[in-house]
């Protein structure tokens, strides 16, 4: 009986950790294998040409080019994507960087809201997030939780 009680407590604790983890994960389904797989394909079709096939971004992505644009940043752990909450990543991907930043900011990052569904955009972001190391995912989840 004591063993069953301990197992029940352990099971409840595991469920609580899972619920807390999902609650702080934001809206991106990075733990859903189907979404991640779909996102990988959509990333390859829509994002890799600028952000790299390994999410590495363009060279010297922090320095403006001769036209005044910043190159496409990496989406791997070396970039700053994970510094932004899901809500902002979804908005940037949907509407484009210029629309979100405003104030005359110029970017080549277009919005994909007219060509990808909301679920497609979530899947792309799920793929990206699924590639990050656990410590970066944990930090990103904390950023989401603060929103």
Structural notes for this entry:
The N terminus is likely disordered. Helix 4 crosses helix 6. The chain contains seven helices and no strands. The longest helix has 23 residues. It has 147 residues and is an all-alpha fold. The radius of gyration is 18 Å and the shape is globular.
Order of helices and strands: HHHHHHH
Shape designation? globular
How many strands appear in the DSSP assignment?
0
Number of helices: 7
> How would a textbook summarize the main sheet?
none
Task: Identify the quaternary structure here.
Answer: single chain
β-strand percent reads: under 5%
What's the end-to-end separation, in Å? 43 Å
Enumerate the spans where pLDDT stays under 50 for 5 or more consecutive residues.
1-24
Estimated structural class: mainly alpha
Question: Over all CA atoms, what is the radius of gyration?
Answer: 18 Å
The proportion of residues forming helix, as a percent range, comes to 55-70%
């Amino acid at each position: 009986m004591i063993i069953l009680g301990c197992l029940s407590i352990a099971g409840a604790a595991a469920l609580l950790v899972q619920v807390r983890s999902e609650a702080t994960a934001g809206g991106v389904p990075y733990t859903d294998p189907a979404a991640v797989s779909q996102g990988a394909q959509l990333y390859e079709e829509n994002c890799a040409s600028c952000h790299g096939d390994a999410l590495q971004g363009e060279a010297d992505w922090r320095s403006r080019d001769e036209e005044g644009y910043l190159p496409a940043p990496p989406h791997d752990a070396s970039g700053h994507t994970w510094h932004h909450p899901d809500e902002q990543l979804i908005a940037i991907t949907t509407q484009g960087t210029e629309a979100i930043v405003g104030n005359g900011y110029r970017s080549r990052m277009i919005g994909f809201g007219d060509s990808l569904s909301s679920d497609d955009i979530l899947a792309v972001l799920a793929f990206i997030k699924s590639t990050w190391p656990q410590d970066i995912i944990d930090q990103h989840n904390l950023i989401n939780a603060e929103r």
